[in-house]
Amino acid sequence: MTPATFEIDALQESDAARCAELEKLLFPGEHPWSERAFREELRMGHHYLAARDRNTLVGYAGIAFVAGPPHAEAEIHTIGVDPAYQRRGIGRELLRGLLVVADAAGATVFLEVRTDNAAARTLYEDEGFTVVGLRKRYYQPSGADAHTMRREPRA
Q1: Average pLDDT, the chain
Q2: Does the CA dihedral 140-145-83-94 come out positive or negative?
Q3: Does the predicted model carry a pTM greater than 0.85?
Q4: InterPro entries recorded for this chain (predicted)?
Q5: Is residue 48 among the annotated active site residues?
Q6: Residues forming beta bridges with residue 150, ordered by sequence position
Q7: What ranges make up the beta strands (E) of 1-145?
Q8: Segment 44-63, tens digit of pLDDT
Q9: How far apart are CA 76 and CA 67, in angstroms?
Q10: Could you count the other beta carbons within 10 Å of the beta carbon of residue 96?
């Protein structure tokens, strides 16, 4: 459960620099997203959430719709939580916030997760995702494999 001091709200363009800073901490050895990448995601109208401890951004998550009705589909683009704040339920709350948006649109949701990230995969499975595929060498430059996971919409 998220402690009472945490607030989930909309990610703002002014949060992009902090998101990029967290990306570097969270995804060393990969191509972390830049401040510009976060700004572009928001400008394209994708749905992004922020987790804040008072005024400090400690987590972020985003989803994009890739197909509309009658067979709506969405992709989780990213979820990240400051390492100092992990294991407090923040990632779960961010994911659930994205899933509320997807479910409201009746969307099937897809995501990719590193095959060696057991904690993330367990979170996704707990929230109804199942593995539907394997993407060899998906993450670059490390060459790590990814599982593609899917969750059907909920009423």
Answers
A1: 93
A2: positive
A3: yes
A4: AcTrfase_RimI/Ard1 (IPR006464), Acyl_CoA_acyltransferase (IPR016181), GNAT_dom (IPR000182), MshD_Acetyltransferase (IPR050276)
A5: no
A6: 110, 130
A7: 6-10, 47-53, 56-67, 73-81, 108-114, 130-135
A8: 999 999 999 998 999 999 99
A9: 13
A10: 14
Per the CB < 8 A criterion, the answer to whether 113 and 119 are in contact is: no
Residue located via tokens 């909920």 = 154
Q: Three-state SS for 61?
A: strand
35 is catalytic: no
C-alpha–C-alpha distance, residues 12 and 90, integer Å:
18
- For helices 118-126 and 90-104, angle between their N-to-C axes, nearest 10 degrees: 40
Q: How far apart are CA 146 and CA 155, in angstroms?
A: 29
User: In sequence order, which ranges of 44-141 are alpha helices (DSSP H)?
Assistant: 90-104, 118-126
Burial class for 28, CB neighbours closer than 10 Å (0-12, 13-18, 19+): exposed
CA-nearest of 63, 66, 54, 51 to 19 is 51
Helices 35-43/16-26 angle, 10° precision = 130
Q: Determine which one of 30, 112, 125, 127 is catalytic.
A: 112
Going along the chain from its start, the domains and CATH numbers come out as: 6-151 (3.40.630.30)
What residue type is assigned to position 30 of the chain?
Answer: E
Length of the chain (residues): 155
